[in-house]
Amino acid sequence: MKAEDVKKITMIGAGDMGHGIAASCLLGGYQVVLRDIEQKYVDKGVAGIIASLDKFKEKGKITPDAFANALVRLTPMVDLQTAVRDADFIIEAVPEKLELKKSVFADLDKFAPKHAILASNTSNISITDIASATTRPDKVIGYHFFNPAILMKLVEVIKGKATSDESIQVGYDVAKKIKKVPVIVKKDSPGFIYNRINEPTVVLLSKILEAGHPTPEEFDAAFKPLMAMAPFELMDYVGIDIAAHGLEYFSQVLSKDYKPSEAMMSYLKSGNLGKKTGKGFYNWSKGRPTIDLSKATKEYDINQLIALQVNEATKLLEEGVVEDPKEIDLAMANGGGSPFGPFALAQGIGYHELVYKLNELHKKFPLNIFKPTKTLKEGKIKL
């Protein structure tokens, strides 16, 4: 099958990610079925799609005709069998639980046409594990969008152990057609590219909480002038529970070094999870917190955070998860707010300096994941 054979896409899950992906597919010209387990969830998803496309229309990004035409191609549905029976490409966006995803994929395998590609919008779970629930592991791919899916450009197209090159190519080309920036992940590995490269920074924050200094505000004040959201502020915004569960997952599948500190877990026990509960490291009850820049710590600097990213990025090259450093930079620049990827930043700073900065962190927190890799120490990566 080729991308031009894909006419109908079925979206399984109408939540924030699901309806955002569905809206992107509608803008790409596809027939889209939006399916969820209850009508109320489907209706909410449809309302989300209309609201997103309406904003595009108001801003002049799409014409009124394109808006109307997109909605004509949308079919909301609850019945799974009907939703997938003539689909060419199916994208799953249900909660991040392996057993749930396997159950969904077993059903998709049963009801979808034999030629259909089954894609999972998982952010962490092994594509190989998900594919094991089907009789077509060659047609199962990872398809990781970023939130909000209608605006964010990056799509990680992930190869499971048995995924065919043809399926990956179709996923890549479909992502291009819906005006996303696809990056192929050649080896099924925890966190894929974007989340894997950012995870050591979360470990550092967890360890700083354990050390008791600097405070989250003192740390953030040093970085706030350099980024839209400083590290602790961002964790509060996303949810401290999400960050902690991510660390727990990585500690199980990659290294015990990722285990969240008791100081971090205490926020979960107290129920102070960040913005969604009104309080975390900051008080969000009156809106976005104000960070006092005069409190900026001198203990940490931006090159240490870049060093953590570059070091983890070199591990992806060493492990064969990605073969080209340019692809890593493409993913990182399109998955978040930075205009530059880690290797582009490294070229400007110098690998010798980044090794020095990592050694500083390793001296404070002697974790193996903070040790500079052989590739980083050699410093011969060319873009």
Structure description:
The longest helix is centred in the first third of the chain and has 20 residues, at 39-58. The protein has an 8-stranded mixed β-sheet with strand order 3-2-1-4-5-6-7-8, sandwiched between helices. The model has no long low-confidence stretch (mean pLDDT 96). It is an alpha/beta fold and 383 residues long. The protein has helices at 16-27, 39-58, 64-72, 80-84, 98-111, 127-131, 165-177, 194-211, 216-223, 231-238, 240-253, 262-270, 302-319, 325-335, 342-349, 351-364, 374-378; strands at residues 8-12, 31-35, 74-77, 89-92, 117-120, 140-145, 154-159, 181-185. The chain folds into 3 domains: 3-185, Rossmann fold, CATH 3.40.50.720; 194-295, Orthogonal Bundle (N-(1-d-carboxylethyl)-l-norvaline Dehydrogenase, domain 2), CATH 1.10.1040; 302-378, N-(1-d-carboxylethyl)-l-norvaline Dehydrogenase, domain 2.
